[in-house]
Amino acid sequence: MISPRPRFPLSAPVTAPKKGSLTTKQALLTLLIALLISSVAGSIELLSHATNMRQEVQLRVAQQLAIVNGAAAEAAFQLNPDLAHQIAYGLFSDDEVAWVSIRDDFGRALAEFNTPEQAESTWLSQRLFGDILHHQTALLYYMGSDMPEAIVGEIELVLSEGYLTQQFLARIYAVVGFSILEAFILSILVIAFFHVFITRPLLKVHAAIAQTDPNRPGHWPKPALRGHLHDELGHLVDSLDHLLKAFQQGLEQRDQLHHLSNMDGLTGVANRRHFDEFYKQHWYLAQQTQQPLSVIFIDIDNFKKFNDHYGHAMGDETLRAVANALNQCIDPTRDLLARYGGEEFVCVLPGQDHDDAVDVAHCLREAVLSLAIPHAFSSAHSDLTVSMGVASMSAGVLVSAEALIEHADQHLYRAKRLGRNRVETRKRPA
Ligand SMILES: Nc1nc2c(ncn2[C@@H]2O[C@H](COP(=O)(O)OP(=O)(O)OP(=O)(O)O)[C@@H](O)[C@H]2O)c(=O)[nH]1
To answer: Which intervals hold domain GGDEF (predicted)?
Structure first.
């Protein structure tokens, strides 16, 4: 049976990224790596922010306490609650101060401000600011140049844990948000880079391979990858090109060998092996499709005498001429002319009924006669002639492959007996 050729392209070229595609995998991987790097960098940045913020707060509180120390000492020395109130209020007006108290040297409060509702302390706020919330400074009063400074009271201040944590979280959100944005932008840039420089050229190579005719691999549409001539992708395409061309050469050699193995070396027509395959194949086909099939056996008359008198070389030359003449009467795209052996040829005519085959046989006989090859020792004619036996299998009539051949052979034998240079047949051999 004739096996159907595989269709091509074998698969549709891939042009858009799909789930599981290289681009998607690259995108996910890049995003993951970018997020990982961003979170590590963000964490380091957060640690540094926390350290800086603690230092800033401590410095600011120390400066504020130093600034108000003189005035607060004056208020404590004079036991002036209004002045103490004023100073404490100034400190308390800062949002980060939760509690402030100015006391005299007996510990009595001259002024005190307290935030009524404090946010609950959390593990994070305690870890970050727990140890820097409480500040206490002695109030030093200057008594004169020859007297030492006297402690006249103290000022105590507690920072708002919730407010500091809020400030810190606000910074965190900004840092984290920026890191995520950075990761996304970086990912998009990397993905775009990989897609343009790696994935897209690879897709081009894939599309070219998918479009390649498996029967003509050497003629594949080799993709031109601009900018990749000397890199790995360029080398990949070159290697593929070499491989496919070598493959093509192999196929051509195989076809050539196949052709040679099916050809008769002397006459150039099909050999017996090819005839056997072709005949078997078309006999089955004729059975299946209910089509007629005809066979003609052709034998050169008195060829032994021809050889004996004109020489074997002349005999060879004549066999070639006869084969060539016979070939003129058949349709090589449909029929087969083969050398059956020695000076005997056979014609297989698929789809041709008895009448068609007889017409072809007459054509064959006349074609040989028209060669006008002198044969002075022929019993049939002064020129070289052929005898033929025709057998046909009509559409829908079952005749075995062997029987059909046998019938054609018998008719040929009869043609020889009846004087040669003739076509013998029987209309309904079965
Ligand atoms: N030159 C040449 N002769 C061949 C070749 N093959 C077979 N022959 C000759 O063909 C001749 C066939 O002779 P026979 O079978 O007796 O048949 P014939 O002499 O043609 O007689 P009929 O068939 O009865 O007409 C033999 O002499 C073979 O040597 C070949 O390849 N070249």
So the answer is: 291-428
Show the ligand 1 pocket: residues with CB < 6 angstroms. Answer: 266, 299-304, 307, 312, 315-316, 319, 342-343, 416, 420
**pLDDT averaged over the chain?**
88
8 A C-beta contact, residue 278 and residue 349: no
Cis bond before residue 9 (omega within 30° of 0): yes
Q: Where are the alpha helices (DSSP H) in 303-353?
A: 303-310, 312-327
Query: Which atom of ligand 1 is found nearest the CA of 420?
Result: 25
Q: What is the pLDDT of residues 85-130, one digit of tens each?
A: 999 999 898 888 989 999 998 889 999 998 876 667 788 788 888 8
Residue corresponding to tokens 């109030």? 139
Clarify whether 424 is annotated catalytic. Answer: no
User: How far apart, in whole angstroms, are the C-alpha atoms of residue 39 and residue 4?
Assistant: 59
Where on the phi/psi map is residue 20: left (φ > 0), alpha (ψ -120 to 50), or beta?
A: left
Class of domain 272-425: alpha beta
Judged by DSSP in three states, 386 sits in strand
pLDDT digits (tens, 9 = 90+) for 179-212: 888 878 888 888 888 888 888 888 899 999 999 9
CA atoms within 13 A on the CB side of 102: 31
The residue extents of the domains of the chain are: 22-171, 199-254, 272-425
Backbone angles phi, psi at 157, to 5 degrees: -140, 135
Question: CB neighbours (10 Å) of residue 324?
Answer: 15
CATH architecture of 22-171: 2-Layer Sandwich (3.30)
Is the ipTM above a cut-off of 0.90?
yes
Name which residue sits closest to atom 32 of ligand 1, judged by CA: 316
